[in-house]
Amino acid sequence: SQQGEEDPQALSIQEGENATMNCSYKTSINNLQWYRQNSGRGLVHLILIRSNEREKHSGRLRVTLDTSKKSSSLLITASRAADTASYFCAPMEYGNKLVFGAGTILRVKS
Amino acid sequence: GAVVSQHPSRVICKSGTSVKIECRSLDFQATTMFWYRQFPKQSLMLMATSNEGSKATYEQGVEKDKFLINHASLTLSTLTVTSAHPEDSSFYICSARDFEGPGNTIYFGEGSWLTVV
After folding, report:
1. Does any CB of chain B come closer than 8 Å to the CB of residue A81?
2. From A44, B46, B52, B63, which residue has the greatest number of CB atoms within 10 Å?
3. Using the 8-state DSSP alphabet, how is residue A82 labeled?
């Protein structure tokens, strides 16, 4: 298993702006998953991108994956106050477990 | 998406007693489930991997006799905190792997707040 490292650790933006979070990892992966966690709640699965994919969209979310640089990014467009949460990336080798980094704490101010 | 149900969401128990937390995959079979612990303002710490029909695999530093994990069916795993102490108070979250879903997606429960008094 391997841990994703998110950057920045914290991000504060105004409602309507875009938020970009980055993730780096160390070894080869089968896929990479992004999760959101609201304070005191469980994790919500946002999006999964496979190692042979470069970009994926889901509503206001856009995820990119660069396996040559071992990095991924999550873009949230037109952010809303409800997007305020912690965001975690989870690089995954096939059949392996998820180990989490510190995450990015996003605060969207209205 | 797939749903993982965790119960109870909040529990208060007295020191020395045991408490059981259930994790169920509601619309898929989960041969593998995971248990995490999270302290306030910190990330999730993986405690153990639970495989249906076999013993759980514990992460280094996690006491297996303290945190008993049972994965008796393809949709249910339980975590029992035995002889609980106040320092066991924490947020416990389970997750389940959907092997038949795209890319082995892992879904999380809503978590359980444990307070030991």
Report:
1. no
2. B46
3. G
Kindly state the percentage of chain A with pLDDT values over 90.
77
Count of A-B CB contacts under 8 Å: 58
Give how far A60 is from chain B: nearest CA, Å: 17
Amino acid occupying residue B43: S
B6 and A CB contact within 8 Å: yes
> Minimal Cα–Cα distance from A33 to chain B, Å?
8
pLDDT higher than 90, residue A78: yes
Tokens of A78: 């037109």
Distant-in-sequence, close-in-space partners of B63: CB < 8 Å, separation ≥ 6? none
Q: Is residue B72's pLDDT more than 90?
A: no
Give the pLDDT of residue A95. 65
Average pLDDT score, chain A = 93
Contact between B31 and B54 (Cβ < 8 Å): no
Q: Which of residues 7-36 of B touch A (CB under 8 A)?
A: 34, 36
Q: Quick one: closest CA in A to B42, which residue?
A: A102
pLDDT reported for residue B105: 85
Output the 3-class SS for chain B. CCCEEEECCEEEECCCCCEEEEEEECCCCCCEEEEEEECCCCCEEEEEEEECCCCCEECCCCCCCCEEEEEEECCEEEEEECCCCHHHCEEEEEEEECCCCHHHCEEECCCEEEEEC
Q: Which residue of A has its CA nearest to B43?
A: A102
What pLDDT shows up at residue A94? 67
Asked if A69 has any chain B CB less than 8 Å from its own CB, the reply is no
